[in-house]
């Protein structure tokens, strides 16, 4: 029997409706959640992501402002803008879109964002809090994956989850969040020998590699839940995930489509993190 393709649109739409209602309630109490996005340079993919984030804010009733800066903007100017946004009471979340031009240090930029406004959960203090299980934001993509699994009704506790990828944005925090949900977690990466031996043991397989269609049916245990975080642009212009969807479809029990599931859920968690930051500021 082919896998059930997870209906990202339906899950995301229902979740955004819940968020919008909470935003409305908070706004009526005098605090409209606000997000500032900083985009430096003209990276075409980043421009699309930033546009989508701003549109999602608008639809949810969240105030948003996008600061589009020229690629030649100095690091000092970016840090100065972040300082102003840190002091701006209208803004509860600040997101600096990656990648930044080479002359700007991602580390300096991330550390300049006020911890309580770091809706990406990239600041070392928030990463540390995530690690020890303290309250606070969780990074948008991995938190979105957990939310998808929960909304579909996938049991995580006691399951073997295998994460492919160890980036700071996805793979590492993904493994921590799965651990927090009481999964047994294995992390595979580019230096893992005999990767299929590990991935074939996965009840839940999360692919976050950035290589189109790398995960084939031989990597997947029959009945596994397969979550595809990859968004890769093919030479044909089409988007493909890290998972070879057609090859894996009749092996998995559930599979996420690309595009249309993890991507929109990532933005939804950004809305949630902004809402939560505004709630904490209102307390
Ligand atoms: N670039 C790609 N993904 C992300 C993300 O989640 N946050 C930011 N700030 N930049 C990104």
From TrEMBL:
InterPro entries: Aminoacid_DH-like_N_sf, NAD(P)-bd_dom_sf, THF_DH/CycHdrlase, THF_DH/CycHdrlase_cat_dom, THF_DH/CycHdrlase_NAD-bd_dom. It comes from the Bacteria. Its EC number is 1.5.1.5, 3.5.4.9. GO terms for cellular component: cytosol. GO terms for biological process: L-histidine biosynthetic process; methionine biosynthetic process; purine nucleotide biosynthetic process; tetrahydrofolate interconversion. Keywords: Amino-acid biosynthesis, Histidine biosynthesis, Hydrolase, Methionine biosynthesis, Multifunctional enzyme, NADP, One-carbon metabolism, Oxidoreductase, Purine biosynthesis. It catalyses: (6R)-5,10-methenyltetrahydrofolate + H2O = (6R)-10-formyltetrahydrofolate + H(+); (6R)-5,10-methylene-5,6,7,8-tetrahydrofolate + NADP(+) = (6R)-5,10-methenyltetrahydrofolate + NADPH. NADP(+) binds at residues 165-167, 231. Residues 6-120 form the Tetrahydrofolate dehydrogenase/cyclohydrolase catalytic domain. CDD domains: NAD_bind_m-THF_DH_Cyclohyd (cd01080). Pathway: One-carbon metabolism; tetrahydrofolate interconversion. One of its GO terms (molecular function) is methenyltetrahydrofolate cyclohydrolase activity. Residues 139-281 form the Tetrahydrofolate dehydrogenase/cyclohydrolase NAD(P)-binding domain. Belongs to the tetrahydrofolate dehydrogenase/cyclohydrolase family. Catalyzes the oxidation of 5,10-methylenetetrahydrofolate to 5,10-methenyltetrahydrofolate and then the hydrolysis of 5,10-methenyltetrahydrofolate to 10-formyltetrahydrofolate. Homodimer. NCBIfam families: PRK10792.1, PRK14186.1. This is Bifunctional protein FolD. It comes from Paenibacillus xerothermodurans.
């Amino acid at each position: 029997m082919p896998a059930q393709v997870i209906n990202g649109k339906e899950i995301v739409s229902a979740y955004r409706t819940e968020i919008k209602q909470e935003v409305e309630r908070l706004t009526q109490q005098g605090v409209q959640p606000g997000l500032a996005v900083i985009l430096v340079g003209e990276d075409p993919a980043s421009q699309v992501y930033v546009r989508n984030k701003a549109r999602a804010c608008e639809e949810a009733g969240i105030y948003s402002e996008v600061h589009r800066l020229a690629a030649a903007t100095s690091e000092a100017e970016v840090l100065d803008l972040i300082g102003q946004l840190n002091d701006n009471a209208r803004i509860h979340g600040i997101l600096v879109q990656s990648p930044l031009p080479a002359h700007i240090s991602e580390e300096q930029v991330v550390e300049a964002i006020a911890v309580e406004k770091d809706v990406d959960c990239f600041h070392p203090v928030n990463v540390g809090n995530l690690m020890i299980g303290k309250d606070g934001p969780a990074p948008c993509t991995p938190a979105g994956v957990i939310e998808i699994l929960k909304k579909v009704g996938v049991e995580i506790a006691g399951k073997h989850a295998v994460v492919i990828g160890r980036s700071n944005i996805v793979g590492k925090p993904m493994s921590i969040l799965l651990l927090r949900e009481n999964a047994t977690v294995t992390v595979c990466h580019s230096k893992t020998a005999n990767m299929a031996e590990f991935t074939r043991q996965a009840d839940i397989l999360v692919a976050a590699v950035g290589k189109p269609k790398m995960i084939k049916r031989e990597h997947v245990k029959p009945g596994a839940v397969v979550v595809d975080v990859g968004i890769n642009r093919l030479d044909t212009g089409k988007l493909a995930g890290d998972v070879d969807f057609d090859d894996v479809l009749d092996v998995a029990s559930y599979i996420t489509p690309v595009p249309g599931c993890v991507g929109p859920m990532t933005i939804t968690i950004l809305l949630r993190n902004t809402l939560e930051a505004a709630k904490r500021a209102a307390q």
